[in-house]
Amino acid sequence: MKSRLTSILASASALLLASCATKMSNDPTAPSGPPDATLSVKIVQASYYGSASAGDGTLRYQGRSYPISVKALGGGGLGAQSIEATGKVYHLGSLAAFPGTYTGARSGLTLLEGKMHERLANDKGTVIYLTGKTSGLATSMGIDKFVIELK
After folding, report:
1. What pLDDT, on the 0 to 100 scale, is given for residue 149?
2. Is the model's pTM score more than 0.85?
3. What is the mean pLDDT of the chain?
4. Mean of the pLDDT values across residues 78-99?
5. How does residue 25 score in pLDDT terms, banded at 50, 70 and 90?
């Protein structure tokens, strides 16, 4: 009975993740136009079905640099990895539109070294396209909620 319940919960979780992923654009390719800002981040991520991430970085906006912090919780994955990424930020009309909660979908495999691409969007319309390298041992597939704040 317990294994049947576990199987049902796993199937329901997979279906939920799939439906969430299809409702948001998962295209990690940034538009060809110039971004409103750029950023660089260093993040450490650990996962065991659920995932937790933390890190920091720098936002470059209108000729100035702003330190940022990044925290995330998500579903899916197994292992640990570090991520060094740069990003292009679009639809950033003011600095106030940058901090907030961003949603992203991820999938990948890191065996010592790997690459990552992810599109993050917040409820203010700001979109971040990240690309970078990973190191560690991890599988990742799921949905993440990132809280990005100015320090």
Report:
1. 96
2. no
3. 81
4. 94
5. very low
Give dist(CA 64, CA 25) in Å, integer: 30
pLDDT, tens only, 89-104: 999 999 999 999 999 8
Alpha carbons 72 and 100: distance in angstroms, whole number: 12
Q: Give the span between the Cα atoms of 34 and 12, in whole angstroms.
A: 41
The per-residue DSSP string of the chain comes to -HHHHHHHHHHHHHHHHHHHHHHS----PPPSSPPSEEEEEEEEEEEEEEEEEEEEEEEEETTEEEEEEEEEEEEEEEEEEEEEEEEEEES--SGGGSSEEEEEEEEEEEEEEEEEEEEEEETTS-EEEEEEEEEEEEEEEEEEEEEEEE-
Q: Is 148 exposed, middle or buried (0-12, 13-18, 19+ CB in 10 A)?
A: buried
Around Cβ 36, how many Cβ atoms within 10 Å?
A: 18
Among candidates 116, 123, 112, which has minimal Cα distance to 146? Answer: 123
- The domains found in the chain, sorted by start residue, are 26-150 (2.40.128)
- Residue 57 has, within 13 A of its CA and on its CB side, a CA count of 23
